[in-house]
Design a protein that fits this description.
- This protein is mainly alpha-helical.
- The chain is elongated and about 50 Å long.
- The chain starts with 13 loop residues before the first helix and ends with a helix.
Length: 87
């Protein structure tokens, strides 16, 4: 049987906290990019015209709640402007 070491140099230090914080931010950023890509794909498949400004607005958004809302709405909106109107 092998012992598992749960303590390593730097454990519970500012270094570890910043490392874990950065790791979490990277994960959230990756999720946001994936959501944005999905929204753009749904709109493109549906044939809804997208300007460069709209693509940039969607791609640069990092709010996962907002992106999830846009993804849900991307399947039903008639115009891309309707994606951004508050319900």
């Amino acid at each position: 049987m092998q012992n598992v070491v749960t303590h390593f140099p730097g454990h519970r230090t500012l270094f570890e906290e910043k490392y874990l914080e950065g790791k979490a931010e990277g994960k959230a950023e990756g999720e946001a990019k994936g959501e944005a890509k999905g929204i753009l794909r749904v709109l493109e498949v549906r044939g809804i015209p997208l300007t460069d400004d709209v693509r940039q607005r969607i791609a640069s958004c990092t709010d996962l709640d907002r992106l999830n809302d846009w993804l849900d709405r991307s399947g039903t909106v008639e115009r891309v402007e309707d994606l951004f109107t508050e319900q």
